Amino acid sequence: MSPLLEVSDAVRAEIGDEEADRLLAGENAPGSYDCTSCRTPGHTEQERTSTVLFVGEETAVLAFAHATCIPSQVVSVSEEQLKGAVRSLSGESEFARQPSAPPQPTSAEPGREAAVLGVTCGQILIGEELYPAIVVEPTGPIARPGSTGPGDEFLPLLVEAGFQRVADVSLAPSPLPGWSVLLAMGQLHAVLQGDPAGGRPSAWWQAHQPLAVTDGWRASANQHHTVFVYAAPAGVIGQQPREDLLREALEKAAVNGLLVAAAMPLAGT
Question: Where in this protein does the record put region Disordered (predicted)?
Answer without folding.
Answer: 88-111
